[in-house]
From TrEMBL:
The keyword Transferase applies. This is Class I SAM-dependent methyltransferase. It comes from the Bacteria. InterPro entries: CFA/CMAS (IPR050723), Methyltranfer_dom (IPR025714), SAM-dependent_MTases_sf (IPR029063). Pfam families: Methyltransf_31.
Length: 274
């Protein structure tokens, strides 16, 4: 299979403005840290760890690189059953929480670093074939063939990637239509699709499982305006900020925005040698 078309299209969709990405994830750090104790999220984490154990991917002697680690949600779970974890993230605010969560948990086998995966040189850290598992769960850091192959180069054997297959978010869909003129009643996401086809062209045959998820999140109007504005920052539409603010004000109740999302997530696991 010729993967050139997938490489080209994926490269075109790559987010190049990392400073905007950092702002967006800094803004959401409080929210992500708060949901660490969410019962459904705990079940989701346990299911994922159990899946990796069942596939003999991780054990007490394993080392893990957690790309886009955020507040340490998965790193803290890996710490319970593996030898050592390095978590990296672009957001300094996320990592402030991650380091505090380490202290609270008293694990001493995790290290966090603020690094953008897209800019990281593996040789600078001596990370080539360094980790038993290179793990990238729901992170936009894996957004090109280069980012994907870097995962493989950092791994001794296994890589895991997860992402949306589709995501139906009415607020964001409505804003896309107002700002970009696009009907997005169900937004399909392509990262997993591109990655799968590129891996297949390399002779690697990933295993995929799917999970259906739903959630409801409440934002303050102020934070929602800031968050959605950052998401459309690259739109090149002159008055997009006014459109975002006006729409969110029109649907707010008592200064709050309620976001309801249903989505399908793919878990993709592969052995770099198969």
């Amino acid at each position: 299979m010729d993967s050139t078309i997938f490489e080209k299209v994926w490269g075109e969709s790559e987010r190049k403005n990392l400073s905007l990405s950092k702002q967006f994830w800094d803004l959401r750090a409080d929210e992500f840290n708060e949901i660490l104790s969410n019962k459904d999220k705990k079940t989701e984490k346990a299911d994922l760890i159990e899946f990796l154990i069942s596939k003999n991917v991780i054990n007490k002697d394993s080392t893990v690189l957690d790309i886009g680690c955020g507040v340490g949600k998965h790193s803290l779970e890996f710490a319970k059953i593996t030898k050592g974890i390095v978590g990296i993230d672009i957001s300094s605010k996320m990592l402030e929480y991650a380091n505090q969560n380490i202290k609270n948990s008293r694990f001493d086998n995790i290290k966090f670093k603020r690094i953008a995966w897209q800019n990281l040189n593996l040789d600078d850290y001596n990370w080539k074939e360094k980790f038993d598992l290179v793990f990238a769960a729901m992170t936009p850091a894996i957004n090109s063939k280069n980012a994907l192959t870097k995962m493989i180069e950092a791994s001794k054997k296994y890589c895991f990637m997860s992402g949306f297959v589709y995501r139906n978010d009415k607020i964001k869909n409505d804003l896309r239509e107002k700002i970009l003129g696009k009907d997005c009643s169900k937004k399909f996401e392509n990262n997993i699709y591109y990655a799968f086809n590129i891996l297949w062209s390399m002779g690697i045959h990933p295993e995929i499982q799917y999970r259906n998820v739903k959630w409801i999140k409440e934002w303050s109007l102020e934070k929602a305006v800031e968050g959605y504005t950052l998401q459309f920052q690259d739109s090149q539409i002159e008055n997009f900020k006014d459109i975002v603010k006006s729409h969110l004000e029109s649907i707010s109740e008592n200064g709050k925005i309620k976001e309801s999302v249903d989505a399908k997530i793919a878990w993709m696991l592969w052995n770099k040698d198969k």
